[in-house]
Specification:
Length: 279
């Protein structure tokens, strides 16, 4: 068994590196990839501490999960098998030093609202009130006449609403997350310079109109080497569809639990560790 999608508290996981390795050893994993968001700190920690590395008797693959953007879609791209020292300067420049500008995000969303002619009160961004979406969403749904511009699930669920904001450039409250993160083409180029390969992470979680069309764009632009076919939130039917797509287009196959060890809706699937071929 292998798990190529896990997180530690170096990003948004709750386990430290030691605990993750202990759990991987208990599960009898043969291969583990630590894929923290936008950081390689866990891998540098392992490099410096041999005793820590020896907790897990299986193979540890280098990994990372990038926030990135392509064609107005904010998505996550997994990367594996790279030289951490060659990739670190890019990670440091575009992620460690370049923190999200939430005020700019708010302003860009308000520009879209104005362009879409939605009815909304005059509101000012206050970081004490939370993320920009926490201020904008209730201001938009306050007026029933705005409802015609949104699907029911977008109108009724702030998380779905926000997903559409960052993945649909035609959405009435769209914001292009290239204000925060580098374009996927640049990310892929840097990963390959460091000897690695790139995979689209959990493609069904982005609320896209057509996931396969999005994969086609990435593949045709030579941005991805593979697709995360198995994920703890996927149905068997979704995984089968992605597997067929990868086989047809000669793409690599990846998968994993996406372990953060937090209580969430997918907790009943969190302990599933996929058996698959990373070819």
């Amino acid at each position: 068994m292998i798990d190529l999608h896990t997180h530690t508290n170096h990003s948004d996981g709750t386990w430290d590196t030691k605990r993750l390795l202990e759990e991987a050893e208990k599960t009898k994993l043969e291969v583990l990839a630590i894929t923290d968001h936008d950081t390689l700190d866990a891998h540098f920690e392992l490099e410096k501490d041999e005793n820590l590395r020896n907790i897990f008797t299986g193979k540890i693959k280098t990994g990372i999960e990038f926030n990135t953007v392509y064609d107005g879609v904010h998505f996550h791209m997994l990367a594996y098998d790279f030289d951490i020292h060659k990739l670190q300067p890019f990670v440091h420049k575009y992620y460690n030093l370049r923190k999200p500008d939430l005020r700019l995000e708010f302003e860009e969303m308000m520009k879209s609202i104005k362009k879409s002619n939605l009815k909304i009160d005059v509101i000012i961004y206050d970081e004490k009130k939370g993320w920009p979406i926490d201020i904008i969403y209730p201001a938009v749904i306050k007026y029933e006449e705005n409802r015609e511009y949104f699907k029911d699930e977008e109108w009724n669920d702030i998380d779905v609403f926000f997903n559409s904001c960052v993945t649909n450039k035609n959405f009435p409250v769209a914001v292009n997350f290239e204000i925060h993160y580098p374009n996927a083409k640049l990310v892929a180029e840097e990963v390959r310079k460091a000897g690695g390969k790139t995979f689209v992470a959990h493609v069904y979680r982005y609320n896209l109109e057509d996931e396969i069309a999005f994969l086609d764009m990435l593949r045709n632009d030579k941005i991805i080497d593979g697709v995360e076919v198995y994920h703890s939130s996927f149905t068997e039917k979704q995984s089968e569809k992605l597997l067929e797509y990868c086989n047809k287009n000669n793409l690599l196959i990846s998968g994993g639990t996406d372990c953060h060890r937090r209580k969430e809706k997918r907790q009943e699937n969190r302990n599933r560790v996929w058996q698959y071929v990373y070819r």
